[in-house]
Amino acid sequence: QVDVAAMVQLFGYVDVTDTGFIVAVLSIAFNPLFWNVVARWEHKTQALSKVFGSSHAACYCLGAAILVLNGVRSQCFTEAMKSQPKLEGWDCHWTYYSGLAISAVGTLFVVSSFLALGFTGTFLGDYFGILMEEKVTSFPFSVLDNPMYWGSTAIYLGWSLMHASPAGLLLTAVVAISYTIAVLYEG
């Protein structure tokens, strides 16, 4: 049995009607929807490859768009956290350094995933017909499935702890839910 009293108290600090918070939720939900819809559309039509003259150029352009959208998402996330109250009991060195450690582990998973997959492997090259020679099974894929998604989630969790932000924790849950849905859709 779960005691939800602590959770209710924690999220009592969050104004979910705040415009910045709503924008952050929408940007979090939009990103995986965008790249999955565009990639599947490309796979069916090769429209982007035709427009850009090659599948590689199209994949690199989609990758650049995803990177820009991720920057926008991170900025929206940060602004939503800053506009909401901190949890004073968490605004201490222990929580800050715990968050920093969690973010470091998340960064390790994201960066090592990128290095293992390369740019086109990371940014949906398979939908453009750019296939890897074999499935990547080395670290971090040997440790967990979808390490880039869960590494990114860990970065947001750590960032939220570093800022003692209940709003950040709730937004991190939105990130995790969005990635869970993306994994189900992609599978």
Automatic annotation (TrEMBL):
The record lists the catalysed reaction(s) as: 1,2-di-(9Z,12Z-octadecadienoyl)-sn-glycero-3-phospho-N-methylethanolamine + S-adenosyl-L-methionine = 1,2-di-(9Z,12Z-octadecadienoyl)-sn-glycero-3-phospho-N,N-dimethylethanolamine + S-adenosyl-L-homocysteine + H(+); 1,2-di-(9Z,12Z-octadecadienoyl)-sn-glycero-3-phosphoethanolamine + S-adenosyl-L-methionine = 1,2-di-(9Z,12Z-octadecadienoyl)-sn-glycero-3-phospho-N-methylethanolamine + S-adenosyl-L-homocysteine + H(+); 1,2-di-(9Z,12Z,15Z-octadecatrienoyl)-sn-glycero-3-phospho-N-methylethanolamine + S-adenosyl-L-methionine = 1,2-di-(9Z,12Z,15Z-octadecatrienoyl)-sn-glycero-3-phospho-N,N-dimethylethanolamine + S-adenosyl-L-homocysteine + H(+); 1,2-di-(9Z-octadecenoyl)-sn-glycero-3-phospho-N-methylethanolamine + S-adenosyl-L-methionine = 1,2-di-(9Z-octadecenoyl)-sn-glycero-3-phospho-N,N-dimethylethanolamine + S-adenosyl-L-homocysteine + H(+)
Q: Which pathway does the record list?
A: Phospholipid metabolism; phosphatidylcholine biosynthesis; Lipid metabolism
**Signal peptide from the UniProt entry:** none
The answer on whether this UniProt entry bears the keyword Cell membrane reads no
User: What Gene3D superfamilies does UniProt report for this protein, alphabetically?
Assistant: 1.20.120.1630
Q: Name one GO molecular function term.
A: phosphatidylethanolamine N-methyltransferase activity
Location relative to the cell: Endoplasmic reticulum membrane
Q: Which UniProt keywords apply?
A: Endoplasmic reticulum, Lipid biosynthesis, Lipid metabolism, Membrane, Methyltransferase, Mitochondrion, Phospholipid biosynthesis, Phospholipid metabolism, S-adenosyl-L-methionine, Transferase, Transmembrane, Transmembrane helix
Q: Specify the protein's topology with respect to the membrane.
A: Multi-pass membrane protein
Q: What is its main location?
A: endoplasmic reticulum
Question: In the UniProt record, does the keyword Transmembrane helix occur?
Answer: yes
Transmembrane ranges, per UniProt, are 20-39, 96-124, 165-185
Class in the EC hierarchy, top level: transferase
PROSITE patterns given in the database record:
SAM_PEMT_PEM2 (PS51599)
- Give the EC number(s) listed in the UniProt record: 2.1.1.17, 2.1.1.71
Q: Name one GO cellular component term.
A: endoplasmic reticulum membrane
Sorted alphabetically, the Gene Ontology BP terms of this entry are: methylation; phosphatidylcholine biosynthetic process
Q: Report what the protein is called.
A: Phosphatidylethanolamine N-methyltransferase
Species for this entry: Acrocephalus arundinaceus (Great reed-warbler)
Gene for this chain? Pemt
